[in-house]
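wait is this the right file?? whatever heres the structure
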C-alpha cells in the first residue's frame, strides 16, 4: 500500500541521527561581510547608514514592518472572506460533522530550519540528505513526529483532502470493542480528522539571507521544478470531545505538511505535534505509537494504494460525505484493520 511509502519514523530510532550531529555542521558557513564588505559599505553610504551594522538593523526593521503590513492585510482579507462566506438560511451541512471554525496555526518552516543555509549548500542537498537533516533535527524532541513525503504522494493527498476534507479514524486502545463503533469503551476511540489547505509558499531565493543581503553564490543551485503546491494541515480530535465542544475541542495531534522545498527538492516535509497534557508534568495527550497509528489509519483511506479493500475504503470515505445516514461504523472498523493492539 502507498501508506508504507511515507516512512513515518520514531525520531529516536532514526539511524542517521547522531548525538553530536547538528545542522550547522552539515552546511558550509561563509563570511558574508568579508566577501561583500565593499559593496555593503557602499550601500551603507548610499542609504546614510554609519556602517554595515546599522545597515543590517535598518534592513531588519524594514523587513519586520513589511511582515507586519502583510499580516494586517491577511487578517483583513480573512475577515472579509469570513463575512462573504457566511451561510444564509438554516440549511444543514452536507457532511456528517459540521466544519470547525478555527484552523491550526502554521509555524513557518524557516523558524524550524535555516532555509538560507540549506539552499546555499554546494552541491545542493539530495532528497535523502534533506530527509536525514529533518530527522536529525527532531531526533531529541519529545511529542513530535517527522517524515519526508515524496511529491507525487503529496499530490494524491492534496487531491483527496480537497475532495474529502473530513473523516473519522479509529485508534485501538486495548480491551473490548464497542458494538456500534461510536463509543470508546476501552477498545477503540474514534478520532475526527479535518484537513485545511493553506497558501502556496513562494519559491526560495538561494542568493540572499534572512535580511535580504547577498550571500555566497553556490557553484550549483537547486533546480526549480514548477511552483510549490499549497501547505496542508491535518487535525486529529477525539470524536466525542468534538461532538460536545465543536470548535472549542482541542486536537490531540496536528500535522503540518511543508511544501517550501517541493519545487527545489521534490519532497514535502511532514511534522506532527502532539498536544501536551494540561497538567504540565511533561506528559502528552497521545503516546508516540498512538500518534503514528492515527497517521497510518488516515493513509489507509486517503492513500489506499492497491490490493484488497481499496475500493471499499474509497466508497466508505465517499459515503461519509455524500450519504452520511448510510455510514456504517462496523465497516469502518473492518476496513481499518485494527485487530493488532498497540
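ok assuming it is, sequence goes like this
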Amino acid at each position: 500500500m502507498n501508506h508504507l511509502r511515507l516512512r513515518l519514523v520514531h525520531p529516536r530510532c532514526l539511524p542517521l541521527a547522531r548525538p553530536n550531529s547538528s545542522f550547522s555542521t552539515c552546511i558550509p558557513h561563509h563570511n558574508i561581510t568579508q566577501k561583500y564588505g565593499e559593496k555593503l559599505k557602499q550601500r551603507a553610504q548610499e542609504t546614510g547608514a554609519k556602517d554595515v551594522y546599522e545597515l543590517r538593523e535598518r534592513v531588519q526593521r524594514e523587513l519586520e514592518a513589511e511582515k507586519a503590513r502583510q499580516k494586517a492585510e491577511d487578517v483583513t482579507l480573512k475577515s472579509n472572506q469570513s463575512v462573504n462566506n457566511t451561510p444564509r438560511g438554516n440549511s444543514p451541512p452536507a457532511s456528517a460533522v459540521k466544519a470547525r471554525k478555527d484552523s491550526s496555526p502554521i509555524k513557518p518552516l524557516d523558524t524550524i530550519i535555516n532555509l538560507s543555509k540549506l539552499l546555499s549548500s554546494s552541491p545542493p542537498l539530495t532528497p535523502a540528505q534533506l530527509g536525514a537533516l529533518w530527522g536529525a533535527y527532531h531526533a531529541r524532541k519529545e511529542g513530535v513526529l517527522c517524515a519526508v513525503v515524496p511529491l507525487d504522494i503529496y499530490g494524491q493527498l492534496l487531491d483527496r483532502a480537497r475532495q474529502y476534507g473530513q473523516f473519522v479514524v479509529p485508534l485501538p486502545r486495548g480491551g473490548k470493542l464497542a458494538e456500534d463503533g461510536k463509543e470508546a469503551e476501552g477498545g477503540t476511540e474514534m478520532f475526527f480528522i479535518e484537513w485545511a489547505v493553506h497558501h502556496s509558499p513562494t519559491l526560495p531565493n538561494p542568493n540572499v539571507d534572512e535580511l535580504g543581503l547577498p550571500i555566497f553564490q553556490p557553484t550549483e543551485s537547486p533546480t526549480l521544478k514548477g511552483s510549490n503546491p499549497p501547505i496542508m494541515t491535518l487535525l486529529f480530535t477525539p470524536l466525542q470531545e468534538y461532538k460536545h465542544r465543536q470548535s472549542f475541542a482541542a486536537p490531540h495531534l496536528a500535522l503540518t505538511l511543508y511544501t517550501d522545498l517541493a519545487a527545489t527538492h521534490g519532497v514535502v516535509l511532514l511534522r506532527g505535534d502532539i498536544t501536551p497534557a494540561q497538567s504540565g508534568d511533561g506528559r502528552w495527550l497521545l503516546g508516540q505509537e498512538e500518534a503514528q497509528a492515527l497517521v497510518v489509519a488516515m493513509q489507509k483511506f486517503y492513500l489506499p494504494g492497491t490490493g484488497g479493500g481499496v475500493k471499499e475504503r474509497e466508497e466508505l470515505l465517499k459515503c461519509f460525505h455524500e450519504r452520511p445516514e448510510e455510514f456504517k461504523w462496523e465497516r469502518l472498523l473492518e476496513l481499518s484493520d485494527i485487530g493488532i493492539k498497540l
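The beta strands are 144-150, 166-172, 188-197, 232-238, 253-258, 267-274. so i think its the right one actually
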